[in-house]
């Protein structure tokens, strides 16, 4: 029997609540102190992991703490600082271009508007929503590869195109829930509902997932597939995250926050 629109809305909202219980500590996994740092880190995160970006941004922001400083950067030096994030030539050129545009058009400040953000070099809707949601508290859906895959598996959409996915998912939730839903789906995609080996048998939302069974369903086997703080043997890290330790505190205690 086909699911009615009302039943779907109820089901996916239950999923959001359950993910909130599973990941009460879900936040943007990029480290940042202000909107400029988040914008730069998000541009750098294309085609690489947040963990890798976090490993190079302290030195990058020590050298270039704001748009004014980065706008005057030597391109070679910038490339060297961000080399390990991949596509470093294109990314350095975007960072220079966007810093110069911030200085020329926005007095060096990051604008809190979608239309202005997407005009900056290297900034698409996804990056813009990350910045709006996390640096300015404006609701936004961040449709990255994890979000898109999960939205389809959870039958929030059948679309592949990120803008269409965003539209379908936006219609199912209140705007105030958009930013946290984004964090939670991305967290879940990284830890449990992987692209190739989803850990269905260890999934807290299996009960409401129409795709249950596309991955490992045996609980013990599925548990072995979990990543990050849910990976076998990292229970104390998960406990500290639930207790509210910040990523910075955990790193200072010697925990590795990678997959
Ligand atoms: S049940 Fe499986 S497919 Fe569904 S969300 Fe969980 S891991 Fe993903």
UniProtKB/TrEMBL annotation:
UniProt keyword annotation of RNA-binding present: no
Classification via CDD domains: ENDO3c
EC number(s) on file: 4.2.99.18
Cofactors that this protein relies on: [4Fe-4S] cluster
EC top class named in words: lyase
Note accompanying the cofactor annotation: Binds 1 [4Fe-4S] cluster.
Gene from which the chain derives: nth
GO molecular function: 4 iron, 4 sulfur cluster binding; class I DNA-(apurinic or apyrimidinic site) endonuclease activity; DNA binding; DNA N-glycosylase activity; metal ion binding
Keywords per UniProt: 4Fe-4S, DNA damage, DNA repair, DNA-binding, Endonuclease, Glycosidase, Hydrolase, Iron, Iron-sulfur, Lyase, Metal-binding, Nuclease
Protein source organism: Candidatus Nesterenkonia stercoripullorum
Domain annotation HhH-GPD: ranges: 44-191
Matching Gene3D superfamilies: Helix-hairpin-Helix base-excision DNA repair enzymes (C-terminal), Hypothetical protein, domain 2
Domain of life of the organism encoding this protein: Bacteria
An individual GO BP term: base-excision repair, AP site formation
Binding site for [4Fe-4S] cluster: 193, 200, 203, 209
Catalysed conversion reaction: 2'-deoxyribonucleotide-(2'-deoxyribose 5'-phosphate)-2'-deoxyribonucleotide-DNA = a 3'-end 2'-deoxyribonucleotide-(2,3-dehydro-2,3-deoxyribose 5'-phosphate)-DNA + a 5'-end 5'-phospho-2'-deoxyribonucleoside-DNA + H(+)
Family label: Belongs to the Nth/MutY family.
Protein name (database record): Endonuclease III
Job description of the protein: DNA repair enzyme that has both DNA N-glycosylase activity and AP-lyase activity. The DNA N-glycosylase activity releases various damaged pyrimidines from DNA by cleaving the N-glycosidic bond, leaving an AP (apurinic/apyrimidinic) site. The AP-lyase activity cleaves the phosphodiester bond 3' to the AP site by a beta-elimination, leaving a 3'-terminal unsaturated sugar and a product with a terminal 5'-phosphate.
Source species taxonomy: Bacteria, Bacillati, Actinomycetota, Actinomycetes, Micrococcales
InterPro entries from the UniProt entry: DNA_glycosylase, Endonuclease-III-like_CS2, Endonuclease3_FeS-loop_motif, Endouclease-III_FeS-bd_BS, HhH-GPD_domain, HhH_base_excis_C, HhH_motif, Nth
């Amino acid at each position: 029997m086909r699911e009615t629109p009302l039943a779907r809305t109820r089901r996916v909202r239950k999923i959001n609540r359950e993910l909130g219980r599973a990941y009460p500590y879900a936040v943007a996994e990029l480290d940042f102190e202000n909107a400029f740092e988040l914008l730069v880190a998000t541009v750098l995160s294309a085609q690489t992991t947040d963990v890798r970006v976090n490993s190079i941004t302290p030195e990058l922001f020590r050298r270039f703490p704001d748009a004014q400083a980065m706008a005057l950067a030597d391109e070679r030096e910038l490339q060297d600082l961000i080399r390990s994030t991949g596509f470093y030539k294109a990314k350095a050129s975007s960072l220079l271009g966007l810093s110069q545009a911030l200085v020329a058009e926005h007095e060096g400040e990051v604008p809190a508007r979608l239309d202005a953000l997407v005009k900056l070099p290297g900034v698409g809707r996804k990056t813009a929503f990350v910045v709006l949601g996390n640096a300015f508290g404006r609701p936004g859906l961040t449709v990255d590869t994890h979000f898109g895959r999960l939205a389809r598996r959870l039958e929030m959409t059948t679309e592949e195109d990120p803008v269409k996915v965003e539209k379908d998912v936006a219609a199912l939730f209140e705007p105030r829930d958009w930013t946290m839903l984004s964090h939670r789906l991305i967290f879940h995609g990284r830890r449990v509902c992987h692209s190739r080996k989803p850990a269905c048998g260890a999934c807290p939302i299996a009960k409401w997932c129409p795709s249950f069974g596309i991955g490992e369903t045996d609980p013990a086997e599925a548990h072995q597939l979990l990543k990050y703080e849910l990976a076998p043997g990292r229970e104390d890290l998960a406990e500290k995250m639930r207790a509210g330790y910040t990523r910075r505190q955990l790193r200072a205690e010697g925990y590795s926050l990678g997959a």
